[in-house]
Design goal:
alpha+beta, five-stranded antiparallel sheet, homotetramer, 5 strands, elongated, 3 helices, 32% strand
Chain lengths: 148, 148, 148, 148
């Protein structure tokens, strides 16, 4: 049940901005907002790690599953960063690992999110093997082997 | 500064559903949510008042201005209705008048919204005179003269 | 990875209202919105299944984990219902199972969500065993044994 | 109807971050999001212009009216800044003027927002005259006379 991999190395960090209405009546960042922040991290990750492939515009990736652990409430005024890494690449899918942390509190962990993204052939709109160019580009960025 | 027209008759009412995260840290429906609720009322209004014209799919209307008065905070558990009427029709624009009220409190007024919508020719994408069929259909629904 | 339990019986169904801005640039209900809709279903479930306990106001339950499978995109104009059931009750936690379906398409499955909620003692603010009254009330509503 | 004051000088500018789900099915930043961004600008404005008064925590200001002109759609990938100024101070209220612009397009104007905020005595919770310390602090920041 605990999806946090304590040994993941995160090479990508994005500072994110929260809004007044992101905090709910309990005074906490609403759980749904973590997924909006994780989306910001995801887009910036691929723009940074695979700019040519991502910007080619024919990227077919759909989110099949999101699994989020809520560790500590994020409070108004606390800065937040999103850490993102591709954890592994399967035949037709990627697993993305993310953490939302508070850099003002020694990266206190607020939320960890694991996302399964399926690669889609944009012509047939069906799941298709992850192209080799994606695998090699992301392995270069992460400096480690990613395929299962 | 008070945009509430006390003598407007509203023939259209839509019950709207609020969500846990619509309420902010002050325990009030966040001001931005009133505009989301007004959008719900607007769509249902045109679907009801002008179904053939609205569903034809070539509707060109853009929101040019929104003016909202916040009268009383909406609290969790209070049901809310959106009242909508076309107030008047100009040469190339409509003025929509809406109120968000609490039916459990004798229609206590929470927020009034006046929206200026500009009619756009969908071929040229420029403002264009409101077609006669729109004017007559909406005058029929409202049972009164609408053009300025 | 597939969290859908095909044999769960759902006794609770809530019709939910979506908003224009719930649909993203792809024309799909944004993934984060499913969690807002699941929240609506959760609150209505406990209000219906355990009204006395829920309304007592000293309910201490926090969401520890959310796991969502996205099966099919929800499109503008499609009505949506949220089905909710308590799947099981552990020592200090509940597992809630939910599905967001389209009743106009024979309950086509859009998204399934499994939520782990931890029971908190509201005095100490620490996790505490789920009280017997909660277990018996929810077992009555679900008409089956829930504790692990 | 056009609320844009061409001669307002804005001393405060905040870069704001938009999210994937801020853009609606038309591919435009949804109108309701401009108000969320304006809120970000407002908070940062008062934190910068009147830090001692704002952080004292007993600030009573409620939004009574929001009036927004939508000039041009904001598109994904366009950076956005919020410009904020107190335009004038009345007996019991402030008028805040804001613009959301695209710095990558020579500050192309996307949206202008005028907000009427009423000063509230936090003990009585009734509207009360704006304190002199607020007026002088904001006049110092804006380098001009603000009271009507």
């Amino acid at each position: 049940m605990d999806i946090t991999e304590t040994n993941t190395i995160f090479r990508h960090r994005l500072s994110v901005q929260t809004r007044f209405n992101d905090y709910d009546i309990l005074g906490h960042l609403n759980n749904t907002v973590y997924l909006e922040l994780a989306d910001l991290g995801k887009t910036d990750y691929f723009t940074t790690a695979a700019p040519k492939l991502w910007n080619a515009g024919n990227v077919g990736m759909v989110v099949a599953n999101v699994n989020a652990d809520f560790h500590a409430p994020a409070l108004p005024g606390e800065p937040l960063d999103v850490l993102t890494a591709v954890e592994s690449i399967g035949n037709k899918s990627f697993i993305l690992s993310q953490r939302i942390v508070c850099p003002a509190k020694n990266d206190q962990l607020k939320c960890s999110v694991r996302t399964i993204m399926v690669h889609i052939d944009v012509r047939s709109m069906h799941p298709a093997p992850v192209p080799e160019c994606w695998i090699s580009t992301l392995e270069d960025y992460e400096s480690r082997r990613l395929r299962d």
